[in-house]
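User: For a reading group we're discussing how well predicted structures match intuition. Take Sulfolipid sulfoquinovosyldiacylglycerol biosynthesis protein. Before you show the prediction, I'll give you the sequence so everyone sees exactly what went in.
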Amino acid sequence: MRIAIFTETFVPALDGVVTRLRSTIDELLKIGDEMLVIAPSYGEGPAYYHEVPIHRVAGVPFPPYPQIMLAPSNPHVGRVLRKFEPDLIHAVNPFVLGSGAPFYARRLGAPLVASYHTNVTTYARFYGLGIGEKAGRWWTRTLHNRARINLCTSETTRNYLSENGVERVHVWPQGVDTTRFHPEKRSEEWRVKLSGGHPEAPVLLYVGRLGREKNIGSLKEVLRAMPEARLALVGDGPARRELEEEFAGMPAIFSGTRRGAELTAAYASADALVFPSTTETLGLAMLEALSSGLPVVAARAGAAHEVVTDGESGLLYEPGDPASLVAACRRVLTDADLRARLREGARRSAESKDWETSTRVLRGYYEMALAAG
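Assistant: Thanks. Here is the predicted 3D structure of Sulfolipid sulfoquinovosyldiacylglycerol biosynthesis protein, as structure tokens, for the group to look at:
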């Protein structure tokens, strides 16, 4: 199968969508599929991912969040697509660049599959995107309803999209690399780094974008209530400087973006992952933590309950309730027996998810879209 993938973000950018796309492309290559990726230009970004060509589209940085490139489609995209002759087009998070995918799918006679990964209209409120939430939902519904099949990453998101008028919605299952993210990746060196030189102290880990929408500031309550604990934040983003000022004088360590062995060691070397976001469609960091044998403390919001089983692989707390957040963190950090049980449950839950199965389900949806023509 020849698949053209439109995506609003791709390597060298690093986020949950890019991780899912990379892992999916790896699996599709094993099957023997051929792909072309249409993605924004990031200056010196690579022209290939493995042997898959990446056609870069010029764009402009989104001022409140320069890591996001706004790259509208252009006629050269059409020429590249005609030369590639795709059997199917997959628009990932269509909003700016992906808004051209329905047009090209129609012109080329290729079925369109669209997948929804990010609550863009919700994030717009945090970054002053200048669109109303109603307008954002209308745009999302308009683009997705031009696809033969729509995909999302959780039942919670499927219900949300259906309630907002998006049709033909199916769940693209979770996946995680359980070999790469493993409890055996624990490192004393990284334990020292994450704890700011106090490896004996309880260590809470946050992994992900440092953005306003992630509700990271709520974690100050935990550090106030548990001054012996340490908070390590792995990642970067537009709110980093603001958060560094907010957490000044507190035992919070900003480690920046980490990849490869450093990232897997960070997961395996902490005591629990804390995930305060209430806007997630999935939360890949939670899956990577579980695979690393790391209990997850997450807000009972969004799709968190589909990833974390309360009392088995982690603890869920009530969003907007600082006392509930503090109580959950205190339980997991001070009760060694509970933490040991949650570690075992975390790893066990992750072992039932893998990218091969996830990608074979996706490919089944591709075949369904082709058959619907």
